[in-house]
Every structure is written in C-alpha cells, then in structure tokens.
Amino acid sequence: MDDPYHNNVNQQMTEGGQYTYTQDGGGQDGYPYQTDYPPQDEDAASDATEGADEDDQMYEGEYQGIPHPDEIKEARRAARLEAKRKARQAAQQEEEVEESLPEQYETIMEDCGHGRFQWMLFFVLGLALMADGVDGFVVGFVMPSAEKDMCISNADKGLLGLLVYVSMMVGALVWGGLCDKMGRRKCLIYVLTIDLVFSFLSCFAQGYGFFVFLRFCSGFGIGGSIPIVYTYFTEFLQMDKRGEHLSWLCMFWMLGGLYASFTAWGIIPHYGWGFAIGSQFQMHSWRLFMFVCLFPALAALIGVVFMPESPRFLLENARHDEAWMILRQVHDTNWKAKGEPERVFTITNIKTPQTQEDEFIEIQSDTGTAFQRWTVRKMTMLQQVMANVMSLSAPELRLQGLFLVIVWFCMAFSYHGLGVWFPDMIKYMQYEEYQSKVRVFHRERVERFHFNFSLVNQVHREGEYIHDKFANIEIKSVKFENSLFENCYFEDIKSTNTFFENCTIKNTVFYNTDLWQEKFKNCQMENTTFLHPKKGCHLNFQEENDIVIYLVSFLGSLAVLPGNIISALFMDKIGRIRIIGGSMLASSACTFLLLLSFSQGAVICWQCLFYAVSVAAWNGLEVISVELYPSSKRGTAFGILNGICKFAAIIASFIFAAFIGITKIIPIFLAFAALVCGGLVALKLPETREKILS
Prior knowledge:
Subcellular location: Cytoplasmic vesicle, Secretory vesicle, Synaptic vesicle membrane
CATH class of the domain at 112-308: Mainly Alpha
Largest sheet: 9 strands, parallel
CATH topology of the domain at 112-308: Growth Hormone, Chain: A
Shape: elongated
Radius of gyration: 38 Å
Number of helices: 20
Family: Belongs to the major facilitator superfamily.
Keywords: Cytoplasmic vesicle, Glycoprotein, Membrane, Neurotransmitter transport, Phosphoprotein, Synapse, Transmembrane, Transmembrane helix, Transport
CATH superfamily of the domain at 112-308: MFS general substrate transporter like domains
Helix content: 55-70%
Domain Major facilitator superfamily (MFS) profile: 121-689
Protein name: Synaptic vesicle glycoprotein 2Ba
CATH architecture of the domain at 112-308: Up-down Bundle
Number of strands: 18
C-alpha cells in the first residue's frame, strides 16, 4: 500500500492571501509537500499576511510544508479507497482466470476429439456401474435361501436389506465428497477394492451377524461408485457429446440387473452345486452366486488401474503438468485411432486457479512427526469436504439444488417403492392362488397305512392316525390341528411350512427328520422319541416361487432397454428438462394401469411398461446433476443427491410393502403423486444442454 503521507501536494497563494493544495507534483528539493511558488523574502511574506482576520489566519505549519491534520485524514481516506479498489480489481482478475478455465478446457477437449480413449473409459466405468447394479439385486435374490440357511428369525429378516441400503447411502455421501479432494480415479479404486474384499468374505460367512456386517461394508464401498463414475466420465467429454454418452453409460446399470437375474436363475436353484467342509462350513449355491457376482467389480478395478486421473480435477488442484500429459495422451490416442498420428497437441499453457491454501497445508503437513503429518492431512481434508458441502447452499446454487433434491426424492420414492411392490404383489397373488387350492380333511381316521407320497397344501383337523408310517416323503405347507398320532413312525422327512398344532402324540418315533420343537405348537407328547434329528434350518430344495421372481427381475431389467436407447438418442436434441419432465409425467399415467392388475401376467406387463418409460427420467437426472455444479463441487453434490435417492428408497420400501394384501389404491396414489410433483418441479430446472462445464 502507498504511504498516505507520500502525496505530491503543491501550495499556491491566491490574490486574497490564501493557499490552495494540489497533488500534481513535488517540490524542488524532492520533499512531497514543498511548493514551486517564487521565493519571497521574509518581509514580503509578513506584509502579505498583515491585517488578516483571525478566521483567515493560516496554519503555521504551511510555511514549513507540513500538511494540515484535515489533509492527513483526507490522504488516509483516499489511500484506503485506493487499496479497496486494487483488492476488488485483483479479485476480479482471479475470477476472470477461473472463468476462463472452463472455456479453455472445453476447447482442449474439442481439439482432443471423441474416440478410442473415451470408449475405453466408457467400458471400464460401465463395468463399475454394472457392479453397482448387481449389488442392488444380490441381497433380494439370496435372502430367501440365506434366511433358511442361517436360521434367520422373522424379526431379523428385514434387517439385511435395510442395512445394505443405509450403507450405500452413507457410501454415496462420503465418497462423493472425497472424490472432489482426493481424485476421481483414486476414490474409484478404493470403492471397488472395498466392495470386492468384503463381498468375497461374505460368501463364506456362516453367522448371520457377521454376514450382515460384511454386506454393510460392501455396500459402503459400492455406494460411492455412481457419483464417482458420472463425475469422472463427464470430465472427459466435450459439450455436444455429454448427454448422449452419459445416457449410454446408464445402460450398464441395466446390464447389471440382467447379469444378476440370469446368474441367480441359473445357479441358486441348483443346490447340488454347493459343498460342505465338516458340519460347520456350508457352501451352498446361493453363496456361489454371490461369488460370481464379484466378476464385474473385479474387471472394473483392473481397468481403472490403467486409466488416468481426470485432468479437470488436476487443473482444479493446480497440477498443471500432470493434466497436460493426460490431455496429450487423450489427444494422441484418439487421433492415432482415426488414422491421423501426425496431428500435434498444440496446447502449451493451461490456466489454473490459485491454490495458496493448499500450499499452506503442504507446509504444515511437512512438519512434525509422521503421525502429526498424517493427522494434519486427514483433518484438513475433512474440513475441506465439510466446507465443500456447506458451499452448496450458496445463493447461486441454493434454488437449483433444492429443485434437484425434490426431483431425485420423488423419482426414487416412486421407482423403488413400486420396485418393491411388483414382486411382493406377485408373491401375494401366488399365495392367494395356493391357498385357494388347499385341501381340508376333517375327522379322518387312518390306521396301519404307509404314507409313501408327498403331502402338499393340506389341512388336517381332528384326525386320528394309528400305527401309520411316514417314510421318505416331503411334507409341504401342511397343518395338523387337534389331531392324534399313536404308535406312528416318521423317517427321512423333509418339511416346509409344516406345523402340528394342539396335537397329541403318543408312542411315536421320529427318525432322521427335520420335525423338531419349532414345528410343534401346544402339543402333548407321551413316550415320543426323536432319533438323529436334523436340527436347525434347512434349505428348501424345490422353491418354485424363486424362479418366478428371477424371471420378473430379468424382464424388468430388460424392459428399460428401449427407454435407454430413446433417451440417449434425444438427450442432446430435445434437452434434459423435457426428457425428465416428460418421462416422469408419462410414468405417472402408467401407474393408473396398475389398478387393472388382476393377475400375475398383468402385474409383470405393467411393471415392464413403467420401467421402460421411467428410465429416461433417471438418465436425464444423472446428466443434469453433473452439469449444474462446478468441478470442485460436482462429486459432492452428486453424492448428496444419490444419498437422498437411497433414503427415499428405504422409506418407500417400508410404506409400499405395508399395503400388500390390504389395498392397491394407496401405493398407486403415492407413486402417482410423487411422479407428478417431481415432473412439474423438473420443468423449473435450468437447461444445461449448451452449458460449458464450470
């Protein structure tokens, strides 16, 4: 800052004997307040002031060139104003530098072109997205078998699905924020590694508590893949390619659902594919299915290791040289593949924002012990992530962020809610159909009879069974009520959903059966013997309903293919907002067709139609979410939005499941209202089709 006293002030005497001050130049001797007026002798100067009034008397210091106190204050005030002006000018220059980086980066990406490098990255990141899609289906497919294999009580059955979604929600929030500070590639490697390690260990977990813990850790890892994948891929695309290619990338989530459904259909029903080591370690086919589901994540991890970091992230962190080398690699890879290897990467200088804060942190983190340095780095990173989260509430981002939150929540609530409702409704219809065919036997008396055929879907009330033999049969969905068993013999019995209620059992032997205490309710035992019982829980070797659920999931995943193709082709032509709003409003109309779901086939048909129409809204949401936010906040914002999506899915799964078998109107109305609300709010979002990534 200039010295406030260093002003070039000139004094000039007017005809009235007053001095005026100007700041045009210095005096002859170089003193800033020395004047240039003609020299006078002392008598002349004294005569000039003789007879002046007290009010007109001059400040004595002016004879010596000393400024008046008022002039000192004025000079200080002027200096402060000048300092503020320079500070504002410097800030504006910094903003101009930051604003010029997006335009320059877009020009560089256009010069690099779209070619082989983007397609390689497309397939690698697609495999990571596919791994997330597989994980979304794994728990639902293995739950029926896992519940029986690990003797899970009814109270704990819903715990696994809930905790997996909670872990994925937390993972999206954490990894979305970290990828803005640690890097997209590094965080994606961490995410896939965590998922692989804990998913692999869960294949061998024998206890339910340990199994839930491992799946929770796996969900925490894979939950961060979606925010990172879309942020990562976006920063390698030029503006006119973003909408289309991000929409194509969304198809890999569909492929994950197809892969999980097909492998579950082909593996889980084949229980003979498992093996056992002793009596404690059981490796059944559902565990083999979980192992096969690791392949997409493993392939993605291998591919990401050979991919470079996002150059836009490097530039945001002032790592100019690394970013330049990667951009040159992209340029050369694409143009060599196009048959023009002679084209030279001409960019020599890329503007980067100031990083004084990061330099200060590095100075701090290079001092002290190793533990102190590690603590400083991690605490600083945590503070930066939290500051990034808080910055999303800035005035320029607040309104559009609120709109996005509403749209994401409404879309996730209706989509995942109906995603739970469709298979549960099919199961309920199967149950009703099964119950309608139940055979009831009342007061039957069977004596000295050999039951060598299976008993299925029957109710026996007040029956009497004397000297009967039940051997090498399956008893499925059978209930004996208030019946008498006397001198009977049960051998090699496999039972499913079979119970004895208020029965009297006398002089009866149970040999090598799974009929144990939990099967007998309020029964009176007299001289009854259990030899070599099959204690614990046992898998159901013929579960027809599971195959139907696999088929439903497979068809539902396949149904989104037309919607994916249409949204990819038209995303850059008609814009993101019309795609989102139109898809959500059209999906809301499809929900009314669910009132016509009077059969399993109708439910499957309307499910496929709903998924086909609504997938375009998902694609548009994911595209606009990465385009609305600046690069330094993109991962954080997308992570928060994806976390809200998982939160809405948790709420919807409880609400929609509660009305199964009670009414269809309330779930359908809730889905309709959410889709209409989200679709109308989406129309208020800004269009980003021609927006340069900031």
